[in-house]
Write a structure and sequence with these properties.
Blueprint (H helix, E strand, L loop, with lengths): L1 E5 L5 E4 L6 E9 L11 E10 L11 E9 L3 E5 L2 E5 L5 E5 L5 E4 L4 E9 L3 E8 L3 E5 L2 E7 L4 E5 L2 E5 L4 E6 L3 E7 L2 E8 L2
Antiparallel strand pairs: 1-16, 2-3, 3-4, 4-10, 5-8, 5-10, 6-7, 6-9, 11-18, 12-17, 13-16, 13-18, 14-15, 14-17
């Protein structure tokens, strides 16, 4: 296992693909050997972003997306014939980048965490960690993002404290077991396939 602490001051900021806002890129991976790291070379990305006004989502063909509200409440994603309810924080919704989605804010701005992956290149999972418990982890990359305040986990006999706003990136070559001890965090899991 390789564990790396990603500090909030080292995150990068980039414009949304449609230019409608700015996201904070916490961690990502691109195709090996590419010289230009852009949306076309992206394998997966874990990011946070504020949504401060209603508007359209970026069109991202070939990308699967998971999203969760981590600050504020009242977000609804509307697509033709479909609605994704994120009114309550820490509920995960899954949708494709091809969908024509427009946001609706029922109670003001929100902060969200996104986990995106190129379809067929990675399997992804996004969930909230709010109470102490054990959870199995498959081999792959796992990101523990401390949403509000510090959080504490145990993995393979070691204890890790992740400061508020920071992320612990864990790269596992074999299945393991995570013990979430305290705090509030989001767990993003990525398993490359193919």
């Amino acid at each position: 296992m390789k564990a790396t602490l990603l500090k909030s001051e080292d995150y990068t900021r980039s414009p949304w693909k449609n230019g409608g806002g700015v996201f904070t890129d916490i961690a990502d991976e691109h195709r090996p050997g590419v010289t230009t790291r852009d949306w076309d070379s992206l394998l997966w990305r874990f990011a946070s972003t504020p949504i401060v006004a209603p508007g359209p989502f970026s069109h991202m063909p070939g990308i699967d997306r998971l999203q969760m509200v981590t600050g504020g409440r009242g977000l609804v994603l509307r697509a033709p014939g479909q609605e994704f309810d994120e009114r309550e924080p820490f509920m995960t919704v899954r949708f494709t980048g091809e969908m024509e989605i427009v946001t609706e804010l029922e109670a003001g701005p929100v902060e969200v965490v996104n986990l995106m992956a190129r379809r067929g290149a990675a399997e992804i999972e996004l969930l909230a960690l709010k109470e102490p418990r054990e959870r199995p982890l498959l081999s792959g990359t796992h990101l523990i993002y401390a949403v509000s305040g510090d959080c504490c986990i145990q993995l393979e006999g070691k204890e890790y404290v992740v400061s508020s706003g920071c992320t612990l990136k864990m790269e596992l070559s074999a299945a393991s077991k995570l013990s979430f001890v305290s705090g509030l965090a989001v767990l993003g899991s990525i398993r490359l396939v193919g």
